[in-house]
Amino acid sequence: MINPMQQVVIATRSRGSDAVITALQDAGVLHLKPITGGPLSTGSLTDGDAQSRREDERLLARADSTIAELGSYRPAPAPLPDASQWDKVVEDAAQPVSVLARNRQELQADADVERSYGDAVRTLARMAGSLDRSQRLSLLPFLLQPSDDVAELNAALRESLPERYELATETVGLNRVGLIVSLRSERDAARAALGKVRLGELRLPGRFDSMPLGDAAAEMDRIKQGGAGRQGQLNTERDTLARQHGPALYAVRDALKDRVAVHDVRAVSARGKYSLVMQGYVPVHRAAALESSLRGFGDGVSYELHPVDEHHDEAIPVELSNSNYVRRFSVVMGLLSLPKYGTFDPTWVIAVFFPLFFGIIIADIGYGLLFLLFGLWLLGKARRNEGWDLSFFGAYVPPATLSNLGYVVNVMAAWCIAWGFLTGEFFGTLLEHLHFFYINPDLLNNLWSWTGIRYVEEAGVSHYGLIPIVFPRLETAYFSNVALVFALLFGILQVLWGWGIRIQQGVKHKDPVHTWEGIALFGGVLALIMLAFATQAGKDFSQFTNFANPLIIVMYIGFALFVIGWIRVIKQYPLLPIELLSQGGAVVSYARIFAVGLVSAILARLSTDLGWSLYENIGVLGIILGLIVGIALHFFVLALTLIGHIVQPIRLQMVEFLNPTGFNTQTSPAYNPLRRLSPDATSNGQVK
């Protein structure tokens, strides 16, 4: 749910405003809203305030860059030095750290050059011998691609320097290196010959450019042999500096952020010669904390709390408050924007239906157990306060996110296992082959005969096992229509629900356009659904005049609501009938739950059946081959289809369900209260 907010206006003396802002930082509940216009000054700071802000921001940037160069994680809290020492603390750390960073950068640059050119330079140095120190001769190294023609280069050199050059090439890795020796006075002519055949002189980067080939090769050998040791030495120096300066540096950095935040508050407030006015929002359940923080200032502060105007104020921030189960699904909600204040929070719907749909699609005990193991692994890393380094994606998942992700995966796994028992699938039909699951015709007929299907037993086929299958989706000959309609029922529920929310929000916000739009499409979609059921998907249009059928009555009522609603909003939505057809398609989109799941189940069955047939035809050796083939195929199938199994349930929630609610067309800023980062005097070094 969305926590209700109150708007607050705070006025205080300009002389004591820093203390008031600091108290608000300690309370950590006020979300500020900039004040624009009016008789008091607003916007950027001026004069002494602007100069003070620039100094604090300069020092903060210096502290931030030093911490980044140290690359250290936040240490244990340390006492905050006196404000007069902050500049010294930062500079004492910044100077040696900047030298260390420069040395690390130079070492990395040398290592990159050696990795790129080392083999080529060593080969060229061996080819050149002592000629690279000659006073009369010039050496011109170059690189050759496999497609380059040496004979063409030789002809160009013979034309420019007849009998006054030497050309040699040698293979290095996948390419070749070459060396042209000429008189020093004719170096430009040799370089021009290279240009004629679209080749260029090899120029080494950085400090290696001016070195003779022999010296460059020797230097690269030194880098290759001693680079790892030097890197370890620099890492040790960095760790030492981090232990020495890190605690005080972090304490000063946090205090500087708090001080810059004070400047920011002043910049978004209205300022006069003797007064300062702030405005913002505070959650209703935290208003007491705000009042408590201001009570100590007596008549030096005046404030007023009043209800927000959720119909017209676009800046009201959103703070979500949900149960622990729903809150865990923030990793999924992170793909969405926040809901607009005063509207519908879909987090709990996502938390219920996303794992449910995923479980229906997979519906396999074996796959569910694999997901469960993965979820437990994620939770184990989170409990050990370890993150997950996904460097190949350029990402790092912190422990808190891993905890939520592991929890969500385990819920998804639980639904997979539960539906796997209903479909009788364990890595496809493996347990059915072992007669753990089995088809019970009498049970299926008793459960599903009301839908019009009936299982017809094949002659000579016996059915036995431990657990009967009650949702045999793989029995496509007679059960596919039932499974399809079952999936579409979710679409009927969610699409109608979405338009119902649209109506409720329109009434709440006194918005007649959205109210009548919702009524029209709710009635229209309901009418199409009744039409499909009453006519058996278009097979019996004679039902249109069968008013004894309640489905027909509901259908006509739905179409009437659509027509009335469309007439009321025809100026705003002239193409609403086309949107109605689109919404009918949105209901049909939920067939993905059936179709995607069935494809996955068929592939899993084929993988298991192939392995099982090897066992039946070859014997003991077939067991081994069957296991190898089955495991490989199951891994391939799961890897191939997993992204789709995750994306489809999310898409159904984001598009088919949330589009009718208006969720995707409007949002509000996140609740981001003014907070203190550095410890206050009474917190014993702990940050609030």
Automatic annotation (TrEMBL):
Keywords: Ion transport, Membrane, Transmembrane, Transmembrane helix, Transport. It is found in: Membrane. InterPro entries: V-ATPase_116kDa_su (IPR002490), V_ATPase_I_N (IPR040574). Residues 116-204 form the V-type ATP synthase subunit I N-terminal domain. Pfam families: V_ATPase_I, V_ATPase_I_N. It is a multi-pass membrane protein. Residues 669-688 are annotated as: Disordered. Signal peptide: none annotated. PANTHER family: V-TYPE PROTON ATPASE SUBUNIT A, VACUOLAR PROTON ATPASES. Belongs to the V-ATPase 116 kDa subunit family. It comes from the Bacteria. Its main location: membrane. This is V-type ATP synthase subunit I. The keyword Transmembrane helix applies. The chain crosses the membrane at residues 348-379, 400-422, 478-501, 513-535, 547-567, 587-606, 618-644. It comes from Deinococcus arenicola.
